[in-house]
Specification:
By secondary structure, the chain is α/β, with parallel strands linked by helices. It has eight helices and eight strands. It has helices at residues 17-25, 49-56, 76-82, 97-107, 151-165, 183-189, 198-201, 206-214; strands at residues 4-7, 31-37, 62-68, 86-90, 110-115, 133-137, 171-175, 193-196. The chain has an eight-stranded parallel beta sheet with strand order 1-8-7-6-5-4-3-2. Helix 6 (183-189) links the parallel strand 7 and strand 8. Helix 2 (49-56) runs parallel beside helix 3. It binds D-xylitol-5-phosphate and zinc ion.
């Protein structure tokens, strides 16, 4: 099975978002990854609801919204209304993770849970059966263009085992530092979705990079 490729708009040209989204529409990517940062959970601030709405007006792909914000439960319905198809929240940012997952599902979106590089996969044990996507952060969240952390390979294998043990149908998404050089190894470890920001957008031919990631 070919992986799902999710170009991360964080690395795109924000002054030309329509052009960037059109490129993704015309590519083999199935998802568009949209990083929301609040300057509290992560040091950086990226974009907010009006930008997600604007992207929605052009996007013909699944919008995968990654919330790197504290207590994201406050914004789930707003991001759904803005056009998110998948909403991922950070385990570390949710005092009531189970409630927030149910809230995402009630909104009609698919539910994702993201974990930071230092967070053990075992902490997903009690929610894995309820979620659609596990986002394993392979860099410390907050910035694009960082180097992939090799501890992720073990975490992918552990997540795949947990999914099997719990009868979950969650997809494993890898976010951060994905390149044409490590994509194959990431998939061999058991991942299904490759998020790629700089690898896609720093190349003069982003559609070709997406094609290569999908067929690596
Ligand atoms: C990092 C974000 C990632 C980021 C990935 O905090 O969650 O989605 O855009 O960018 P690259 O692929 O450049 O590491
Ligand atoms: Zn992300």
């Amino acid at each position: 099975m070919n992986p799902i490729v999710a170009p991360s708009l964080l690395a795109s040209d924000f002054a030309n978002l329509e052009r960037e989204v059109t490129m993704i529409n015309e590519s083999e990517a199935e998802w568009i990854h949209i990083d929301i940062m609040d300057g509290v959970f992560v040091p950086n601030i990226s974009m907010g609801l009006p930008v997600v709405e604007a992207i929605r007006r052009h996007a013909r792909k699944t919008m995968d919204v990654h919330l790197m914000i504290i207590d994201p439960g406050r914004y789930i319905h707003a991001f759904r209304k803005a056009g998110a198809d998948i909403i991922s929240i950070h385990l570390e940012a949710c005092p009531h993770l189970n409630r927030d997952i149910q809230e995402i599902k009630a909104s009609g979106a698919k539910a994702g849970v993201a974990i930071n590089p230092h967070t053990p996969v075992a902490l997903l044990e009690n929610c894995i059966a309820d979620i659609d996507v596990v986002n394993l952060m392979s860099v410390n969240p907050g910035y694009g263009g960082q180097q992939f952390l090799d501890i992720t390979y073990d975490k992918i294998r552990q997540t795949a085992e947990l999914i099997k043990a719990k009868g979950s149908s969650a997809l494993i998404e890898i976010d951060g530092g994905v390149t044409l050089d490590n994509a194959r190894a990431i998939l061999d470890a058991g991942a299904h979705v490759l998020v790629a920001g700089n690898t896609v957008f720093s190349d003069p031919n982003p559609k070709e990079v997406i094609r290569k990631l999908r067929n690596c």
